[in-house]
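Quick one - first record:
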Amino acid sequence: MYAALMITMLLGGLWHGAAWTFVVWGALHGIYLVIEKVFKHKVPIKINFWNGIFFAFLTFTCINFTWVFFRAREFSTAQTMIESMLFLNPDGVMLLGYFDLLKVGIITVALFLTHWYMRRHTVKMVAENLPAWLFATVWAVMVFLLLIAQGSGEQFIYFQF
C-alpha cells in the first residue's frame, strides 16, 4: 500500500514536468502521506483544539517547503529559497516591504484558521448556519479578491504544455 502511494506521488511529480525538482516535490508529498498513514495506524490520537492546531500548522509548514521544489527550476534555487525561508540567507534581497509582509501574514493566518475550522465542517454546514446574505457576501468578496489579485499575468503552469 505504501509503495503504491509513493509511486503515485512520484508519477504525479513527473506528470507536472520532466525535472528532478518535480520528482522531489512528488516524493515529499508521498513521504508525508506515508508518515501520516503510519502514524494514524500505529498511534491513535484523539484530535483536540491544541494538537489539531499543531498538526494543521505542521502540515501547512511541510507543504510550504514542498512547494519550493515545484517552483524552483534547479536545486540551487530551491536551496536558496529554503535558506531564505529559514532566515539563513543574510545576503538575500527583501522582495516585499513590511506592509506587504503584514498583509501576507494576515491572509496566511486567516487561511490557516479556515483550514483548521473546515477540517470538521463542510461548506454545506456553514451555509446552513449563516444567513444567506452573509454567506453570499463572503463568496462575492472572495471572488472579487481573486479577480483583482491576478498579479503579473504569468501564464498558468498547465497552459505551458
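second record:
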Amino acid sequence: MTTEKGQNEPALVYAAQRGDKESLQLLLRRNWAWLKGLVYSIVRDADDIDDVLQDICVRVISNIDSLREPQRFRPWLAVLARRQALRYRQQKTQRPRPLNEKLPGLNCDEKSTRLLENIEQREQYKQVLDAIESLPDKYRQVFVLEHIDNLTYRQIAEILDIPVTTVQIRLVRARKILYNLVTAKNKNRILEK
C-alpha cells in the first residue's frame, strides 16, 4: 500500500497493523516532534533522547497490533513513550546532563565585549532551561509539548489523554512557576552585584 500524505491516522494504523511499513514510518514521522519533546521532558538529557526514541520505535513496531482503537494512536503512543522514558530514566545511574551543556563553547580570541554579551546570553538561556527542568513532570510535559511543533491544547490533551481544561491549567501554572523562578534568580543576581 502506498501511503498518501493526507491520509488520516486511523487509516495509517490499520495499514500498519496489516504490515504496511510505509504507513508505520509515516505515523512515526508525523508524531516525531512532539514525541521527542515528551521524551526530553522526562529523560532531561539530550544525549539520551535518540536511545529512548529508538526503544520506543521498536516497541511501536512490535506492539502496533495490540492497539484496539486506531483513532487513539496518539494517546497510546504517548503512554508507551512515557513508560519507556521513565524506565530509561530509572535505569540510568548518572546525573542527567541538561540540554544547555550541548551548546558550543566560546572562542577565547573573541573581543571582550562580545564575550561578555555571549556569556550573559548563555546564562539567561541556562536559567530558563534550568527552570524548565525544575518543573514538576506534569507541568514540564505540557509546556514542552506546546513549544515543540506548536501543538494546540486539543492535540496536547489527546496525546496526554487528559481534558483540554487540564492542559490549560497546567500551562498557566507552568508559566507562572517559570516566571517566578527566572525573575527570582535575576533579582538575586542584581542584589549580588
